[in-house]
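User: Can you recover a sequence for this backbone? Please restate the input before giving your answer.

Assistant: Of course. Working from this structure:
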């Protein structure tokens, strides 16, 4: 699906998160002996801090308020986006606690990647399509200026080789 260029940075973040999801699922199915699930979970908690929180903030501070100028304050897509963000934060909090206790990690990690993937698919297929349809071009351009100008921190993809990468176009996770 062709995405408006102004929303590309958000989609690039989604691509990084989907890459992390694939890496985690692979290790949940066939764990590497040198990388216990608790290590993978710890990496995902860090990925949440480094990548997901800044991404959620950009959506909550820059995208959603612009949408609500043109939609009902009770819009279900905006409400779902915020609810999803909170649920993902809650699961990460529980995962972090489980890692510290070294029990119950795998089911929480699995739940987290499932919820995160579902959330990303919703935003890409529904929320962003709605934003492209209802935001006037000048507002999309203003939003794009903020998103393209925002610092894209290098992040370590959970389950990867540990080298930090910067989000970019799909297939182009550039080493930092």
């Amino acid at each position: 699906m062709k995405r408006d260029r102004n929303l590309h940075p958000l989609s690039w973040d989604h691509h990084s998160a989907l890459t992390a999801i694939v890496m985690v699922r692979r290790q949940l199915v066939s764990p590497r002996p040198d990388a216990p699930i608790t290590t993978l979970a710890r990496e995902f908690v860090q990925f949440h801090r480094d990548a997901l929180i800044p991404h959620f903030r950009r959506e909550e501070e820059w995208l959603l308020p612009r949408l609500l100028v043109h939609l009902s304050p009770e819009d279900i897509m905006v409400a779902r986006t915020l609810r999803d963000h909170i649920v993902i934060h809650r699961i990460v909090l529980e995962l972090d606690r489980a890692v510290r206790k070294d029990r119950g990690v795998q089911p929480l990690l699995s739940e987290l990647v499932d919820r995160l993937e579902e959330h990303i698919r919703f935003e890409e297929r529904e929320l962003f399509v709605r934003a492209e349809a209802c935001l006037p071009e000048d507002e999309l351009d203003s939003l794009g200026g903020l998103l393209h100008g925002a610092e894209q921190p290098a992040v370590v993809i959970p389950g990867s080789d540990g080298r930090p990468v910067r989000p970019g176009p799909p297939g182009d996770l550039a080493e930092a």
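That completes the design. Residues 37-70 form the longest helix (34 residues).
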